[in-house]
Write a structure and sequence with these properties.
Layout: H1 2-28, E1 36-37, E2 47-49, E3 60-64, E4 67-71, E5 79-87, E6 90-98, E7 103-110, E8 116-122, E9 126-133, E10 156-163, E11 168-173, E12 176-182, E13 195-201, E14 207-209, E15 214-216, E16 227-236
Antiparallel strand pairs: 1-16, 2-5, 3-4, 4-16, 5-13, 6-10, 6-16, 7-8, 7-13, 8-9, 10-11, 11-12, 14-15
């Protein structure tokens, strides 16, 4: 009887441990509750390629197996995929899988040209830093701990929270907070506080004239490289 009771307790605790693991997995991965999907996994309805982006205007953008897949087209020519809708205060969730050596970014509060805040995204070197694309930021921050959680050649989850005219911006990668910053002012021109969500395909050139020599520049995007995005969802927040 005593041994049977011990066995029951062991089974009970084992069951609790399994349940706890499942609950943790559910809370740390996948689209958060209360968020609305902005990509249906089937087509690019609700999205468009910018025709005035300084990195280029002809990226290859396709939908494959529930993913948005971005590549250069032709090699060296980048571009920007933008949401049709503009957002000001929000929490964005997106899973990304960038190939090694391919530089891009997750844009937010972007205009058509790509004047935006950017989370830098480089396959094989992590990043997750806050940059300005055609925007001079009052405050730049680096995701100094991203290497501790980043998974090369695999999916990584980004959660981005943005609020306020002079934006308060917080980034989590794979459930771990990378940084939390409030810009000193609204860095966008003309007082604009809302903009589009975007995914950037970085340009690169075979050669660049330095004034005295030409040298190879191929670090922006590797031939045949891809950036992949899935489970893209947003929760709009009130304007405080």
């Amino acid at each position: 009887m005593f041994s049977r009771r011990i066995s029951s307790v062991v089974i009970l605790f084992a069951g609790l441990a399994v349940c706890g693991t499942i609950a943790l997995a559910d809370s740390s991965g996948g689209i958060p509750q209360g968020s609305t999907s902005i990509f249906d996994g089937k087509d690019l309805n609700g999205w468009h390629v910018s025709q005035i982006m300084h990195h280029g205007t002809t990226p290859s953008v396709t939908v494959q197996d529930g993913m948005i897949v971005l590549a250069q087209k032709p090699y060296g020519q980048g571009g920007l995929l933008l949401s049709d809708k503009k957002y000001k205060n929000f929490e964005l969730y997106v899973e990304a899988k960038p190939d090694y050596g391919c530089n891009g970014g997750i844009f937010f509060r972007s205009n058509e040209e790509g004047m935006a805040y950017q989370i830098e995204l480089i396959g094989g070197a992590a990043r997750g830093d806050l940059l300005g694309e055609l925007v001079r930021l009052g405050t730049n921050v680096k995701a100094s701990d991203i290497d501790k959680v980043w998974k090369n050649n695999d999916w990584n989850a980004f959660r981005l929270r943005v609020t306020g005219d002079a934006p308060h911006i917080t980034l989590w990668v794979n459930g771990v907070q990378m940084w939390d910053v409030t810009e000193q002012k609204n860095d966008l021109l003309n007082g604009r506080t809302a903009g589009m969500i975007g995914f950037e395909v970085h340009w690169n050139s075979e050669y660049e004239n330095t004034g005295d020599a030409n040298f190879a520049i191929t670090t922006g995007w590797k031939p045949g490289g891809l950036h992949r995005f899935r489970n893209i969802a947003i929760k709009e927040l009130p304007d405080n």
